[in-house]
Write the structure tokens for this entry.
Amino acid sequence: MCELLGLNANVPTDICFSFSGLMERGGRTGPHKDGWGIAFYEGKGCRTFHDPLASADSEVAKLVKGYPIKSLNVVCHIRQATHGRVCLENTHPFTRELWGRNWAFAHNGKLKGVKRWPLKYYKPIGTTDSEYAFCWVLDQLRQKYPKPPAKPETLWRTIKKLFAKVDEQGVFNGLLSDSKYLYAYCSTHLAWVTRRAPFGEASLIDTEMTVDFAKETTPNDVVTMVATRPLTDNEEWTVLTPGDFLVFHEGISVFN
Amino acid sequence: MCELLGLNANVPTDICFSFSGLMERGGRTGPHKDGWGIAFYEGKGCRTFHDPLASADSEVAKLVKGYPIKSLNVVCHIRQATHGRVCLENTHPFTRELWGRNWAFAHNGKLKGVKRWPLKYYKPIGTTDSEYAFCWVLDQLRQKYPKPPAKPETLWRTIKKLFAKVDEQGVFNGLLSDSKYLYAYCSTHLAWVTRRAPFGEASLIDTEMTVDFAKETTPNDVVTMVATRPLTDNEEWTVLTPGDFLVFHEGISVFN
């Protein structure tokens, strides 16, 4: 199993605190030693960091932990390989362009038979079922909508259906972003929390670290975190149930 | 004008030394203060670092300078904006997937009218003429070859023709890689040097730094560097002439 972490906010927000907790699970408090990756959106641009090394030992992870890249959308993943060897091209998140937007995707779970599904536009570079499923989803979107649908809800409903279809092939917890929205699908494990005023303290489960968000934020900030398992022990995380699909925009859930 | 740097080698090689020289040109010895980016190939995987900040001041650049990521192919770019505002999505190198391969592209120069050319499969995310031209080249390749041509030379000749066509629109010094090969096109300025046994010392023009490659290499290593202008003052760089197109594989020029 892998661990997912997503952020969606209404103001550019750094993920240093939550990232610090998650990275401990990469080889120290957790068994996810087979690489990690993160995609930060800045406007339409997307900055990715990938490392096939255990996150707890990674130089690049140290940089990301200490360097506050501020973003409205983040997709992060640490990997325990179940399918596909440990190498850079099998390291999530995967990215592709559709409709002139950067799409980033990370997956937790295992799928069966997905690789026999036909692909038209997008081809996987690595050998994971995760990247294959991502290519298939984008392929379907592209075939159905040569241009993005006028109403965002149309797109959201279609993504939900496509994710549910992939989920039938096994376990499919997924985080996806197109630079505007963060899409979260729960197959077995996914939880989320929204932080907003009045902000309080949060303390990480995986490492001794506490942050007082009141000092780091303004009263208008709204920030949602999505993770495989709650990362803090003193906040109220909502645990999703199988089949749940949420869309986040500007820090709040706009579709479920 | 921007600065390009490429590496192609027969053994995984780090680019720390040449990168150190180039990064000085990003805001210190050169005017290229509008961001920088680098793509490292590791097998079929591609690791990219992008920063819209001046490279001389960039935290991410410090990491890349000090952290020896070893690669057979590298495409690097520092930017002085001529077209398109300074932001992440306008920061080279640009990447796209074609035939299940990662393609990375960086451009130095200015093009006129390219943005009126039709695009079918690939859409730009940012607003640069460079990314548009890259999308157009991949679009043409994809339309002509739904699968990669059996003979690499067929692909090389086509890329040369496409680059020459783009070059007609202005200035087009370009570096491209598909994870196997490094493609270099000279419109006005591009130079290259191949390092092989017996290795000697090299000293950077832009910063006081010397490296003794004899200590860093094995006798079988062959490493080619391509750059806008020579980066060292005691090696014999070959300066390309307008219209030159070279393909490098395992450190040597295999097509021109």
